[in-house]
Amino acid sequence: MSSLLPKHLHLTLKTHAQKVCSLYKRALRNEWSTYDDRWLYRYHAVLLRARFDKHKDEKDLRKAKMLLEEGEKELYDNLHYQPRKFSYSPGGINYGRSVTIPDWVLDFWHPLEKARYPEYFARREQRKQEYIERWEKKYGKPKEAEH
């Protein structure tokens, strides 16, 4: 399984090398999920790398494609039942937990709150004006709404 998207929704084509690199990385992550001891994981990671390096100079594209398909099938057959995930990545326990506050919220601060950070808000107003000028230079001024 190359990704979570169905094959008909892929927007870009991957080269064979990209597919091999992706398979290698997913196989390494699977090894990481399988072996708890660091030394045991490193041992199996080295064995995995040796298996990939054995075929790195394969010139026959049909054989290379067959090896890739066999590797994908082997990975799928040996997937860990509970893969490790990074906590802030999708599927991790902290994913989506910290909310990033949008910049426009600062526009609604009370003037007394803004007075506590005069240099920051002066620079922010200057950057907002620069952004507006760049926008108008690229797209033109917005038309007035007719009533």
TrEMBL record:
Arranged from A to Z, the UniProt key words for this protein are: Acetylation, Electron transport, Membrane, Mitochondrion, Mitochondrion inner membrane, Phosphoprotein, Respiratory chain, Transport
Signal peptide as annotated in the record: none
**Sections of the chain in a coiled coil:** none
Domain (Complex 1 LYR protein): give its ranges. Answer: 18-75
The organism's superkingdom is given as Eukaryota
How is this protein situated with respect to the membrane?
Peripheral membrane protein
Q: Which GO terms describe its biological process?
A: mitochondrial electron transport, NADH to ubiquinone
Name of a matching Pfam family? Complex1_LYR
Q: Name one GO cellular component term.
A: mitochondrial inner membrane
Q: Does the keyword Membrane apply?
A: yes
Q: Which InterPro entries match?
A: Complex1_LYR_dom, Complex1_LYR_NDUFB9_LYRM3, NDUFB9
Which CDD domains has this protein been placed in? Complex1_LYR_NDUFB9_LYRM3 (cd20263)
TM ranges:
none
Question: Is Zinc given among the entry's keywords?
Answer: no
Q: What is its main location?
A: mitochondrion
Q: Where in the cell is it found?
A: Mitochondrion inner membrane
Q: How does it assemble?
A: Mammalian complex I is composed of 45 different subunits.
Its function, per the record, reads: Accessory subunit of the mitochondrial membrane respiratory chain NADH dehydrogenase (Complex I), that is believed to be not involved in catalysis. Complex I functions in the transfer of electrons from NADH to the respiratory chain. The immediate electron acceptor for the enzyme is believed to be ubiquinone.
Annotated PANTHER family: NADH DEHYDROGENASE [UBIQUINONE] 1 BETA SUBCOMPLEX SUBUNIT 9, NADH-UBIQUINONE OXIDOREDUCTASE B22 SUBUNIT
Family (UniProt): Belongs to the complex I LYR family.
- Name by which UniProt lists this protein: NADH dehydrogenase [ubiquinone] 1 beta subcomplex subunit 9
